[in-house]
User: Fold this.
Amino acid sequence: MLEIAGLHGFYGESHVLHGVDLSVRAGEVVTIVGRNGAGKTTTLRAVMGILQKRSGSIRVMGTETIKLPPERVARLGVGYVPEERGIFASLNVTENLMLPPTLAPGGMTTEEIYRLFPNLKDRAKSQGSKLTGGEQQMLAIARVLRTGAKFLLLDEPTEGLAPVIVQQIGRVLETIKERNLTVLLVEQNFRFAARVSDRHYVMESGKIIDAIGRSEIAGKMERLEEYLGV
Amino acid sequence: MSATALFGQLLLGLINGSFYAMLSLGLAIIFGLLAIVNAAQGAFYMLGAFIAWMLFQYLGIGYWASFVLAPLAVAIIGMILERTLIRRVYNLDHLYGLLLTLGLFQIIQGMFVHWYGTSGQPYDYPDILTGGHNLGFMFLPTYRAWVVVASLIFCFGTWYAIEKTRLGAYLRAATENPTLVRAFGINVPMLVTLAFGGGVALAGLAGVLAAPIYQVNPLMGGNILTTVFAVVVVGGFGSILGAIVTGLALGVLEGFSKVFYPEASNMVIFAVMIVVLMIKPAGLFGRER
Amino acid sequence: MALEIGELSASAAKTRGIDWLGLAVGIAILVVAPFLIYPVFLIKLLCMALFACAFNLMIGGGGLLSFGHAAFFGGGAYIAAETAKNFGFPFEFALLAGVASATFLGFLFGVIAIRRQGLFFAMITLALAQAVYFLALRLPFTHSEDGIQAVPRGWLFGVVDLKDNFAMYYVTAAIFLAGYLLVARVWKSPFGQVLRAIKDNQPRMISLGYPVDRYKLMNFVLSAALSGLAGSLKAMGLGLATLTDVDFTTSIAVVLMVLLGGMGTLLGPVVGAIISVSMDDYLAGIGIPVPVVIGVIFVVIILVFRRGIVGEVVHYWRKWQARKPATRA
Ligand SMILES: Nc1ncnc2c1ncn2[C@@H]1O[C@H](COP(=O)(O)OP(=O)(O)O)[C@@H](O)[C@H]1O
Ligand SMILES: [Mg+2]
Assistant:
């Protein structure tokens, strides 16, 4: 589904990604963990084509995308939930939800989405700027589930949210898994990540420094905590 | 003073106001997406009128076909300029966009002045819109009534398209965060080109509507541009409806002052601008940025 | 991304004091020029150059782009012409009257416009200048389309008869030189440094407690006053003040000169004025539409060399200087 090899990324003159290698197979949920500033968000932005100064290889569903603009990457069936959620303040909830065009058949219907996110239905006419952090996150995820994207990039979906909402997002991720979607998840909340992920990559200073399978997690918990500095 | 004169001037004010509204509406759309103040907007207004006139003069094509063709031609010219030249300054200081479009304005206006002089060419009313109705308190020329109705339809149609349709939602979203809209699979560079075309087409349409009322004159664009800038400063760039309302209101106000104090009619919009700047620097509908 | 405004500060800091050699060459050129070129043309050229320097003071110092400087130039021209012709003011008092009126106008514009920046500042100054244009069209003393013609130059301090073109030229040259040196002086002064700091980072200067708007306003008024001086001098030298002087095209012309020569460079506006005034003259002679050429130059400068002629030269000179030691090593 995704193969990244030797990915370098830059913000202007500053070199942020130093040869990232990772891969995600179809149907997997894979997490990238790492400290703040490690380059996790930048990696997702590079995959989406939002970060334009990049080199190396990124193959999405077999297509080389290192030279493609974001809209072409998205059209391959990629859904992006950015760290800052990116809810449009001037659009109401329904407009935000309906904004991303359908990329492939098989996306969730509006009813299914409202069943999964009941509070969005109540706030359908609210302006995007009026939502709480939790509602924004729900909306940001809901909006890509509608499009039929087969591969989702989620950047810290639990960041700054109350435990109840984190649980709710956990349930959403389980639903996503049941629907057999592929997910590349960036997460600092390791407990949350451990519950839903098949595998973990550890990122530091713009490189992947370790990979941990599901079965190894229990044994490597200590090492992980060291990586994350908790 | 006769009521006929008063209402006649008010009607003309309303017509001018709807031209201001269409031009500043186009400016607002373009500014929202491109962060450029399009100084060539006046030139596109003039082009709309001139293309209609040329279609008739050289090809015998009448008003109604020109009503569609001229704005379309203006849109195409605008889109070509956006693709080839204007696009190159998006990442520069916004003032470069203003200077570049000012250069384009000079080129377009200069060429027409060179070819056609500054005296103005007459352009006829379409047959079915000649004549008028006596409403008792005033004489209402049919063509002027049509201009008011048509421009209101286009202004509010644009408002509807932006606020209520899917394409409009793309536009508003791209105004806020173009990168993310691209990441959803929408071709924003194309959207920007279309928006520029649409924004200048509104000016072109106003030009066609204006052609039979005023003469078709190469300088008509420069004259309206400064007024439209003042309208934009008064209204601010924040809201589509705000641009329409401000344009109409200032046009009517200008019409009023023509009746009561003609010497000052050119100044009244600038006076309003000064007052608004003192009270609300961001403009009536603007957001401070 | 900011406007590409030449770094005058750097060169100013290096050459402490005045560049005597440059000044000597400049004065020599000014002295010799009227023997080679028709003095009245030179008078016009120097007035436009002074106007461009004044405009440059504002954009180079404050980073503010005004589209309404014709109001100050033309306003000064009208007042100087009127006072000299109909009030019988002597030359120097007519100039003073012109400068005073432009200063007052600049203060009004500034108070209204200075609160907004960037695009809005440009649009507001344009609209205000248009209001001044309409005033000039309506007020009786400006004689609408005809303008004020046949303005007597009079005598400088009652001793020098300015009817002589050479005398008028040398007076103009002296005033131009004084204006040019004033701009240079302002830029090197602490006032100029504060202005540049504001241009680079306004929020920071506000938080440091600088009255940012007052600095910008002072700079704007100074620029308006110098523009008024240029306009008054033009009215006296050429003997007329017309609607063209307050017209939008004049506002654009000065933007072009400064852009062409290089914003924020000392010499840029002068170079821009020389090219643009000579070009106007030449094009008018062969019937190529001037506005089209001006428009094309705008487009080319903005797409190809935003630093302007002098700015680009300085830029490449510095690059070359920076590379030299490396190649030697
Ligand atoms: N827009 C930007 N411009 C310049 N540097 C940036 C930008 N965004 C992030 N960085 C830098 O890139 C590095 C990686 O950032 P990021 O990918 O956001 O880290 P993470 O998501 O792992 O916390 C950090 O050192 C950060 O300071
Ligand atoms: Mg991050």
User: Anything to note?
Assistant: Chain B has a mean pLDDT of 89. Residues A 11, 14, 16, 34, 36-42 surround adenosine-5'-diphosphate (ligand 1) (CB under 6 Å).
